[in-house]
Amino acid sequence: MVQCTIHTILHSTHKIIWEAFEFMESHIENPRERAVLIGLAAKSLPERERSDEASLAELSELVETAGGQAVATVLQNRQSPEPRSFIGEGKVQEVKQLLEVNECALAVFDNELSPSQHRVLSEELGVKVLDRSGLILDIFAQRAHTREGQLQVELAQYEYLLPRLTGMWSHLVSQTGTGAPIGTRGPGETQLESDRRHIRRRISKLRDELEEVRRIRATQRQKRERNAVPVVCLVGYTNAGKSTLLNRLTGAEISAQDRLFDTLDTTTRKLCLEGARDVLVSDTVGFIRKLPHHLISAFRATLEELTFADVLLHVIDVSNPDWTEQAQVVDELVTSLKLATTPCLRVFNKCDRYFGELPRESGSVCISAKTGEGLGELAEKLAELLESGKKRLTLLIPYAQTAVLETLRREGALVSSDYTDAGIKARVVIGERLWGLVRSFMADDGDE
Ligand SMILES: Nc1nc2c(ncn2[C@@H]2O[C@H](COP(=O)(O)OP(=O)(O)OP(=O)(O)O)[C@@H](O)[C@H]2O)c(=O)[nH]1
Ligand SMILES: [Mg+2]
Question: What distances in angstroms separate CA 102 from CA 85, 128, 228, 300, one per listed residue?
Answer without folding.
Answer: 22, 15, 59, 41
